[in-house]
Amino acid sequence: MDLWFSEKHTPNVKFSIRVDRQLYSGQSDFQRIDVFESPEFGRILVLDGYLMLTEKDEFIYHEMIVHTPLAVHPHVKNVLVIGAGDGGAVRELTRYPEIGRIDLAEIDGQVIEVCKKFLPQTSCKMDDPRVHIYVEDGLKFVRRHADEYDLIIVDSTDPFGPGEGLFTKEFYGNCYKALKEDGIMVNQHESPFYEQDALAMQRAHKRIIESFPFSRIYQAHIPTYPSGHWLFGFSTKKYHPLKDLDEARWNARGLKCRYYTTTLHRGAFYLPAYVEEMLEDVEEKR
Amino acid sequence: MDLWFSEKHTPNVKFSIRVDRQLYSGQSDFQRIDVFESPEFGRILVLDGYLMLTEKDEFIYHEMIVHTPLAVHPHVKNVLVIGAGDGGAVRELTRYPEIGRIDLAEIDGQVIEVCKKFLPQTSCKMDDPRVHIYVEDGLKFVRRHADEYDLIIVDSTDPFGPGEGLFTKEFYGNCYKALKEDGIMVNQHESPFYEQDALAMQRAHKRIIESFPFSRIYQAHIPTYPSGHWLFGFSTKKYHPLKDLDEARWNARGLKCRYYTTTLHRGAFYLPAYVEEMLEDVEEKR
């Protein structure tokens, strides 16, 4: 069988994964959902034709979006996760016993159900008693909350389709209000390399710094995302992602990771010159 | 015109680039050489079907393989570059006025000629009077030299075909001898992500640490190489890649780079946990 899933990273660049078979294909109220089994990457989740995660490299994304803020903020108890119906961020969060509540706002309940059935590697902790699932638009959910969360993780899809509202000034402003006075927001921040991704990255940064007094970008190597060079935003009211990193405290937890280390944490914030320039371009226009 | 160049990163993963036209195709004594014009990446060089460089992202590879050792070693005068017929490493080296001699040993003279004609962006400094080109096997060239170079840059192709000899214990041992007592060798070190690349990376590390007392790996985001997560080796007799990094001295040069910065330099050595483990596996068996 010669069956390939392809994603166009730009109109002129294509990334293709050989698949054994399609495990699921369905249309929810919001998007088309597909799950494939592949020899190289294990199971892969595809939304509207865009690859969301693979079992082989999802650990990189989920470790980096969760452990980076948790190694900085000294007492995270209440967490809001927006998007992330696959459960990967929740799985990493449940490794922290001091986290008492994880609210998950995912617009598409069908994604949650499909992942529970076909992607147990990521969805394995969705039944943890601390997890409260709200099947609703994260944009609307966050409006109703104020001064409540220590950490908000915005695990959105790309800035078009159902995830579009999660890249707006209104949304980031509401996240700011929903955070406590020392809260942190971390968000998936697109990629700097291909032109359209870089423009989306700059737009997101512009809108975030309109709401947050301090925001820094960090990076990871995610082989199945366009260009493999992926960014996250780290926006805070109080803590600095490097000056307030407490390596000894985090390492004393004994959490075993495959990508994240507190040393790598520092390096993740040391960006290439051209990425720094893109961010400065935005900041100078503030 | 719907014309695509594809490279299989593994038998199950394919990366494809739309091309406008083929500018050159020829067979040298060693390999097939192709140059394409592409809308996303500009001109691209392909050897035996493997993508070697694109005009859009070659700056990342060439800046990282040259400026990283130059920001550590305080007085580089004589440099040997092995491979690198495209001229990209030479271009970056010629930006340092204190470098008096750049010997280039490239096995395939036809690669040099083709790049001079079709890739002026990288080959633009091959006529610098400090550059001495030796069209011969780097493995043989380095055998004849002892205690001569401050820096050796091994800009090899992959560890099969004409580049195979540049991944052997004998070769690394001869590089050690060809270096002065405070010399540095930097080499392209494959990728940690896909299994076969990771095995090649571990083999290279094993052979290098049989010759060099100290060797560390550093990384960069290179979107057009398999997985986008690429490694370099930094092997020394004396200098430490971080403790001997002199940021003030390098920044005083005023060299403008698009990827490399002395801050990024540090982060490039902060590797993901799984890569550290792969290297430790090799080091424990020493």
Write out the strand line-up for the largest beta sheet of chain A, numbering strands in chain order: 9-8-7-10-11-13-12
- What is the β-strand count of chain A? 13
What is the fourth-level CATH superfamily of the largest domain in chain A? Vaccinia Virus protein VP39
- Assess the beta-strand content of chain A as a share of residues: 25-35%
Q: What is the CATH level 1 assignment of the largest domain in chain A?
A: Alpha Beta
Radius of gyration of chain A: 18 Å
Largest sheet of chain A: 7 strands, mixed
Q: List the total number of helices of chain A.
A: 10
Oligomeric state: homodimer
Query: Which shape of chain A, going by the Cα principal axes?
Result: globular
Broad structural category of chain A: alpha/beta
Helical percent range of chain A? 25-40%
**How many structural domains are formed by the residues of chain A?**
2
Low-confidence stretches of chain A: none
CATH-derived architecture of the largest domain in chain A = 3-Layer(aba) Sandwich
User: Element order, helices and strands of chain A?
Assistant: EEEEEEHEHEHHEHEHEHEEHHH
User: Distance between termini of chain A?
Assistant: 54 Å
Pfam family, one (chains A, B): Spermine_synt_N
Catalytic activity (chains A, B): S-adenosyl 3-(methylsulfanyl)propylamine + putrescine = S-methyl-5'-thioadenosine + spermidine + H(+)
Function (chains A, B): Catalyzes the irreversible transfer of a propylamine group from the amino donor S-adenosylmethioninamine (decarboxy-AdoMet) to putrescine (1,4-diaminobutane) to yield spermidine.
Binding site for S-methyl-5'-thioadenosine (chains A, B): 31, 106, 137-138, 162
